[in-house]
Protein backbone atom coordinates (compact mmCIF):
# COMPACT_ATOMS: atom_id res chain seq x y z
CA UNK A 1 0.00 0.00 0.00
CA UNK A 2 1.11 3.55 -0.82
CA UNK A 3 -0.38 6.73 0.59
CA UNK A 4 -1.17 9.29 -2.12
CA UNK A 5 -2.03 12.78 -0.90
CA UNK A 6 -3.96 14.97 -3.35
CA UNK A 7 -3.76 18.43 -1.77
CA UNK A 8 -6.08 20.99 -3.40
CA UNK A 9 -5.12 24.60 -2.84
CA UNK A 10 -5.81 28.13 -4.04
CA UNK A 11 -3.62 31.14 -3.43
CA UNK A 12 -6.46 33.48 -2.46
CA UNK A 13 -8.43 33.76 0.79
CA UNK A 14 -12.14 34.06 1.52
CA UNK A 15 -14.30 35.63 4.21
CA UNK A 16 -14.65 32.59 6.49
CA UNK A 17 -14.35 33.28 10.20
CA UNK A 18 -10.87 31.98 11.02
CA UNK A 19 -9.05 31.51 14.35
CA UNK A 20 -6.32 34.06 15.08
CA UNK A 21 -3.52 31.54 14.48
CA UNK A 22 -4.82 30.50 11.04
CA UNK A 23 -2.80 30.63 7.84
CA UNK A 24 -2.64 28.36 4.83
CA UNK A 25 1.09 28.03 5.35
CA UNK A 26 0.47 26.75 8.87
CA UNK A 27 -2.10 24.25 7.54
CA UNK A 28 0.37 23.08 4.90
CA UNK A 29 3.17 22.75 7.45
CA UNK A 30 0.92 20.62 9.67
CA UNK A 31 0.30 18.22 6.80
CA UNK A 32 4.03 17.97 6.03
CA UNK A 33 4.74 17.29 9.71
CA UNK A 34 2.11 14.51 9.73
CA UNK A 35 3.54 12.96 6.56
CA UNK A 36 6.90 12.59 8.30
CA UNK A 37 5.33 10.08 10.71
CA UNK A 38 3.86 7.81 8.01
CA UNK A 39 5.66 4.47 7.73
CA UNK A 40 4.58 3.49 4.19
CA UNK A 41 5.70 5.06 0.88
CA UNK A 42 3.95 8.43 0.56
CA UNK A 43 3.71 10.94 -2.27
CA UNK A 44 2.13 14.38 -2.17
CA UNK A 45 0.59 15.98 -5.25
CA UNK A 46 -0.24 19.68 -4.83
CA UNK A 47 -3.09 20.54 -7.18
CA UNK A 48 -2.95 24.33 -7.29
CA UNK A 49 -5.87 26.14 -8.85
CA UNK A 50 -4.37 29.40 -10.04
CA UNK A 51 -1.33 31.40 -8.84
CA UNK A 52 0.24 30.50 -5.48
CA UNK A 53 2.29 32.73 -3.13
CA UNK A 54 5.99 32.13 -3.72
CA UNK A 55 6.81 31.03 -0.17
CA UNK A 56 4.01 28.47 -0.05
CA UNK A 57 4.83 27.22 -3.54
CA UNK A 58 8.42 26.70 -2.46
CA UNK A 59 7.27 24.55 0.46
CA UNK A 60 5.20 22.45 -1.93
CA UNK A 61 7.95 22.04 -4.51
CA UNK A 62 10.32 20.78 -1.82
CA UNK A 63 7.79 18.24 -0.55
CA UNK A 64 6.17 16.77 -3.65
CA UNK A 65 4.76 17.28 -7.13
CA UNK A 66 3.18 20.61 -8.04
CA UNK A 67 0.27 20.25 -10.47
CA UNK A 68 -0.97 23.65 -11.73
CA UNK A 69 -4.61 23.64 -12.89
CA UNK A 70 -7.19 26.19 -13.94
CA UNK A 71 -10.50 25.04 -12.51
CA UNK A 72 -11.96 28.22 -11.06
CA UNK A 73 -14.12 26.72 -8.31
CA UNK A 74 -14.02 24.28 -5.42
CA UNK A 75 -16.44 21.98 -7.23
CA UNK A 76 -14.36 21.90 -10.40
CA UNK A 77 -11.04 21.25 -8.67
CA UNK A 78 -12.65 18.51 -6.55
CA UNK A 79 -14.02 16.81 -9.66
CA UNK A 80 -10.60 17.16 -11.28
CA UNK A 81 -8.65 15.35 -8.55
CA UNK A 82 -11.16 12.50 -8.46
CA UNK A 83 -9.97 11.51 -11.93
CA UNK A 84 -6.25 11.54 -11.16
CA UNK A 85 -5.86 8.10 -9.49
CA UNK A 86 -7.49 6.42 -12.51
CA UNK A 87 -5.60 8.44 -15.10
CA UNK A 88 -2.30 7.81 -13.32
CA UNK A 89 -3.11 4.12 -12.89
CA UNK A 90 -2.39 3.96 -9.21
CA UNK A 91 -2.68 0.53 -7.61
CA UNK A 92 -6.12 -0.50 -6.38
CA UNK A 93 -4.85 -1.05 -2.83
CA UNK A 94 -3.26 2.40 -2.58
CA UNK A 95 -4.88 4.83 -0.17
CA UNK A 96 -5.73 8.33 -1.43
CA UNK A 97 -6.02 11.25 0.97
CA UNK A 98 -8.09 14.03 -0.65
CA UNK A 99 -7.16 17.21 1.20
CA UNK A 100 -8.33 20.81 1.23
CA UNK A 101 -5.91 23.56 2.23
CA UNK A 102 -7.42 24.89 5.46
CA UNK A 103 -7.05 21.97 7.89
CA UNK A 104 -4.76 21.59 10.87
CA UNK A 105 -3.36 18.07 11.37
CA UNK A 106 -2.08 16.53 14.56
CA UNK A 107 1.35 14.94 14.31
CA UNK A 108 0.11 11.33 14.32
CA UNK A 109 -3.03 11.90 12.22
CA UNK A 110 -1.88 10.41 8.91
CA UNK A 111 0.02 7.55 10.55
CA UNK A 112 -3.20 6.70 12.44
CA UNK A 113 -5.08 6.81 9.13
CA UNK A 114 -2.70 4.28 7.60
CA UNK A 115 -2.89 2.00 10.65
CA UNK A 116 -6.69 1.95 10.48
CA UNK A 117 -6.69 1.28 6.74
CA UNK A 118 -4.27 -1.61 7.21
CA UNK A 119 -6.23 -3.05 10.14
CA UNK A 120 -9.63 -2.77 8.41
CA UNK A 121 -9.32 -3.81 4.76
CA UNK A 122 -13.13 -4.16 4.70
CA UNK A 123 -13.60 -0.39 5.25
CA UNK A 124 -13.50 1.80 2.15
CA UNK A 125 -13.57 5.40 3.41
CA UNK A 126 -11.80 7.20 6.24
CA UNK A 127 -11.76 10.72 7.56
CA UNK A 128 -9.75 12.47 10.23
CA UNK A 129 -12.41 15.10 10.89
CA UNK A 130 -16.04 14.48 11.83
CA UNK A 131 -18.14 14.81 14.96
CA UNK A 132 -21.36 13.60 13.30
CA UNK A 133 -22.71 10.12 14.01
CA UNK A 134 -25.81 8.24 12.90
CA UNK A 135 -28.66 8.07 15.40
CA UNK A 136 -29.71 4.49 16.15
CA UNK A 137 -33.22 5.17 14.84
CA UNK A 138 -31.95 6.19 11.37
CA UNK A 139 -33.48 4.48 8.36
CA UNK A 140 -32.26 4.47 4.78
CA UNK A 141 -35.03 6.90 3.82
CA UNK A 142 -34.69 9.07 6.92
CA UNK A 143 -31.12 9.26 8.17
CA UNK A 144 -30.66 11.18 11.41
CA UNK A 145 -27.33 12.44 12.68
CA UNK A 146 -26.15 13.92 15.95
CA UNK A 147 -22.96 15.47 17.28
CA UNK A 148 -20.69 13.17 19.22
CA UNK A 149 -19.58 14.28 22.65
CA UNK A 150 -16.63 11.89 22.56
CA UNK A 151 -18.03 9.66 25.31
CA UNK A 152 -18.75 6.56 23.24
CA UNK A 153 -17.12 3.51 24.80
CA UNK A 154 -16.04 0.17 23.41
CA UNK A 155 -14.76 1.58 20.12
CA UNK A 156 -12.21 -0.50 18.20
CA UNK A 157 -8.63 0.74 18.53
CA UNK A 158 -5.87 0.58 15.97
CA UNK A 159 -2.41 1.39 17.34
CA UNK A 160 -4.15 2.79 20.40
CA UNK A 161 -6.46 5.19 18.52
CA UNK A 162 -10.24 4.60 18.88
CA UNK A 163 -12.28 4.82 15.65
CA UNK A 164 -16.03 5.40 15.25
CA UNK A 165 -18.36 5.36 12.27
CA UNK A 166 -18.76 8.83 10.77
CA UNK A 167 -22.09 9.91 9.34
CA UNK A 168 -20.74 12.78 7.24
CA UNK A 169 -17.59 14.78 6.75
CA UNK A 170 -16.25 17.42 4.36
CA UNK A 171 -14.45 17.02 1.03
CA UNK A 172 -11.28 16.08 2.95
CA UNK A 173 -11.25 12.30 3.33
CA UNK A 174 -9.44 9.08 2.48
CA UNK A 175 -10.51 6.33 0.09
CA UNK A 176 -8.95 3.24 -1.43
CA UNK A 177 -8.10 3.61 -5.12
CA UNK A 178 -10.09 0.51 -6.06
CA UNK A 179 -13.17 1.89 -4.31
CA UNK A 180 -12.69 5.30 -5.91
CA UNK A 181 -12.68 3.67 -9.34
CA UNK A 182 -16.07 2.13 -8.57
CA UNK A 183 -17.53 5.32 -7.08
CA UNK A 184 -15.88 7.93 -9.31
CA UNK A 185 -18.90 8.65 -11.51
CA UNK A 186 -21.14 9.12 -8.47
CA UNK A 187 -18.57 11.26 -6.65
CA UNK A 188 -18.12 13.50 -9.70
CA UNK A 189 -21.89 13.89 -10.17
CA UNK A 190 -23.02 14.71 -6.63
CA UNK A 191 -21.38 18.18 -6.49
CA UNK A 192 -24.11 19.36 -8.88
CA UNK A 193 -26.77 18.92 -6.17
CA UNK A 194 -25.81 22.35 -4.79
CA UNK A 195 -25.51 23.36 -1.16
CA UNK A 196 -23.55 21.08 1.16
CA UNK A 197 -22.74 18.45 -1.45
CA UNK A 198 -20.22 16.77 0.86
CA UNK A 199 -23.05 15.79 3.21
CA UNK A 200 -25.05 14.38 0.30
CA UNK A 201 -21.96 12.49 -0.84
CA UNK A 202 -21.39 10.77 2.50
CA UNK A 203 -25.02 9.77 2.95
CA UNK A 204 -25.42 8.47 -0.61
CA UNK A 205 -22.24 6.40 -0.45
CA UNK A 206 -23.46 4.75 2.75
CA UNK A 207 -26.84 3.90 1.25
CA UNK A 208 -28.90 6.67 2.86
CA UNK A 209 -31.28 8.99 1.05
CA UNK A 210 -29.65 12.44 1.26
CA UNK A 211 -32.67 14.66 0.52
CA UNK A 212 -36.17 14.77 1.94
CA UNK A 213 -39.10 15.88 -0.23
CA UNK A 214 -38.99 19.47 1.07
CA UNK A 215 -35.31 19.74 0.08
CA UNK A 216 -35.54 18.64 -3.52
CA UNK A 217 -35.92 22.18 -4.90
CA UNK A 218 -32.78 23.39 -3.16
CA UNK A 219 -32.06 26.16 -0.71
CA UNK A 220 -32.83 29.81 -1.51
CA UNK A 221 -29.84 31.28 -3.39
CA UNK A 222 -27.78 34.04 -1.79
CA UNK A 223 -28.77 36.30 -4.69
CA UNK A 224 -32.28 35.77 -5.99
CA UNK A 225 -32.38 35.28 -9.80
CA UNK A 226 -33.82 38.26 -11.64
CA UNK A 227 -36.51 36.43 -13.57
CA UNK A 228 -39.23 33.92 -12.77
CA UNK A 229 -38.02 31.73 -15.63
CA UNK A 230 -34.49 31.57 -14.19
CA UNK A 231 -35.85 30.63 -10.77
CA UNK A 232 -38.02 27.94 -12.33
CA UNK A 233 -35.19 26.45 -14.39
CA UNK A 234 -32.87 26.43 -11.38
CA UNK A 235 -35.45 24.75 -9.18
CA UNK A 236 -36.33 22.18 -11.81
CA UNK A 237 -32.67 21.31 -12.43
CA UNK A 238 -31.92 20.88 -8.73
CA UNK A 239 -35.06 18.83 -8.21
CA UNK A 240 -34.07 16.51 -11.04
CA UNK A 241 -30.48 16.03 -9.84
CA UNK A 242 -31.44 15.58 -6.20
CA UNK A 243 -34.23 13.14 -6.99
CA UNK A 244 -31.80 11.13 -9.11
CA UNK A 245 -29.22 11.02 -6.30
CA UNK A 246 -31.95 9.89 -3.89
CA UNK A 247 -32.84 7.06 -6.25
CA UNK A 248 -29.18 6.07 -6.61
CA UNK A 249 -28.75 5.96 -2.82
CA UNK A 250 -31.78 3.75 -2.31
CA UNK A 251 -31.02 1.39 -5.19
CA UNK A 252 -27.33 0.86 -4.40
CA UNK A 253 -26.86 -2.87 -3.74
CA UNK A 254 -25.87 -3.66 -0.19
CA UNK A 255 -22.39 -4.74 -1.30
CA UNK A 256 -21.87 -1.09 -2.38
CA UNK A 257 -22.96 0.46 0.93
CA UNK A 258 -19.77 2.10 2.11
CA UNK A 259 -18.50 2.61 5.64
CA UNK A 260 -16.53 5.66 6.79
CA UNK A 261 -14.45 5.62 9.97
CA UNK A 262 -13.10 8.58 11.96
CA UNK A 263 -10.84 8.79 15.03
CA UNK A 264 -12.60 9.63 18.28
CA UNK A 265 -11.78 12.44 18.89
CA UNK A 266 -10.85 13.80 15.45
CA UNK A 267 -7.14 14.12 14.65
CA UNK A 268 -7.55 17.03 12.22
CA UNK A 269 -9.63 20.17 12.29
CA UNK A 270 -11.22 22.49 9.75
CA UNK A 271 -9.92 25.94 10.67
CA UNK A 272 -13.19 27.84 10.73
CA UNK A 273 -14.87 29.26 13.81
CA UNK A 274 -18.58 28.94 14.52
CA UNK A 275 -19.01 25.21 15.10
CA UNK A 276 -16.44 23.73 12.72
CA UNK A 277 -13.64 23.52 15.30
CA UNK A 278 -13.46 20.16 17.06
CA UNK A 279 -14.02 20.54 20.79
CA UNK A 280 -11.84 18.80 23.36
CA UNK A 281 -8.49 19.60 21.74
CA UNK A 282 -6.31 22.66 22.14
CA UNK A 283 -5.88 23.59 18.48
CA UNK A 284 -4.05 26.79 19.33
CA UNK A 285 -1.44 24.72 21.16
CA UNK A 286 -1.33 22.36 18.18
CA UNK A 287 -0.68 25.33 15.91
CA UNK A 288 2.16 26.43 18.20
CA UNK A 289 3.66 22.93 18.00
CA UNK A 290 3.49 23.07 14.21
CA UNK A 291 5.22 26.44 14.27
CA UNK A 292 8.00 25.02 16.44
CA UNK A 293 8.40 22.08 14.06
CA UNK A 294 8.46 24.46 11.10
CA UNK A 295 11.19 26.59 12.63
CA UNK A 296 13.29 23.52 13.31
CA UNK A 297 12.71 22.38 9.72
CA UNK A 298 13.43 25.88 8.36
CA UNK A 299 9.85 26.26 7.15
CA UNK A 300 8.11 29.52 8.00
CA UNK A 301 4.39 28.83 8.75
CA UNK A 302 3.47 32.48 9.19
CA UNK A 303 1.20 33.98 6.53
CA UNK A 304 2.97 36.03 3.92
CA UNK A 305 2.24 39.76 3.97
CA UNK A 306 0.32 39.49 0.70
CA UNK A 307 -1.76 36.62 2.08
CA UNK A 308 -2.60 38.57 5.23
CA UNK A 309 -3.59 41.62 3.23
CA UNK A 310 -5.77 39.55 0.94
CA UNK A 311 -7.74 38.03 3.79
CA UNK A 312 -11.13 39.66 4.00
CA UNK A 313 -12.70 40.60 7.35
CA UNK A 314 -15.03 38.04 8.91
CA UNK A 315 -18.70 38.27 8.14
CA UNK A 316 -20.94 38.07 11.20
Q: How would you portray this structure in words?
A:
There is one protein chain. This protein is an alpha/beta fold. The protein folds into two domains: 3-188 and 256-307, Alpha-Beta Complex (Spore Coat Polysaccharide Biosynthesis Protein SpsA, Chain A), CATH 3.90.550.10; 191-254, no CATH class. Helix content is 36%, strand content 17%. The protein has nine helices and 13 strands. It has helices at residues 24-35, 54-63, 74-87, 109-119, 177-189, 197-205, 228-251, 283-296, 305-310, and strands at residues 3-9, 42-49, 65-69, 95-99, 103-105, 125-126, 132-134, 145-147, 157-158, 161-165, 173-176, 260-263, 268-270. A nine-stranded mixed β-sheet has the order 3-2-1-4-11-6-12-10-9, sandwiched between helices. A two-stranded antiparallel ribbon has the order 5-13. Strands 7-8 form a two-stranded antiparallel ribbon. Strand 2, helix 2 and strand 3 form a beta-alpha-beta unit. Helix 6 (197-205) packs parallel to helix 7. The protein is globular, with a radius of gyration of 20 Å. The model is unreliable at 304-316 (pLDDT under 50).
In short:
The protein is of the alpha/beta class and 316 residues long.
Task: State the main characteristics.
13 strands, Spore Coat Polysaccharide Biosynthesis Protein SpsA, Chain A, 9-stranded mixed β-sheet, 316 residues, alpha/beta, two-stranded antiparallel sheet, single chain
SSE order and pairing:
Elements (H helix, E strand, L loop, with lengths): L2 E7 L14 H12 L6 E8 L4 H10 L1 E5 L4 H14 L7 E5 L3 E3 L3 H11 L5 E2 L5 E3 L10 E3 L9 E2 L2 E5 L7 E4 H13 L7 H9 L22 H24 L8 E4 L4 E3 L12 H14 L8 H6 L6
Parallel strand pairs: 1-2, 1-4, 2-3, 6-12
Antiparallel strand pairs: 4-11, 5-13, 6-11, 7-8, 9-10, 10-12
Helix pairs in contact: 1-2, 1-8, 3-5, 6-7
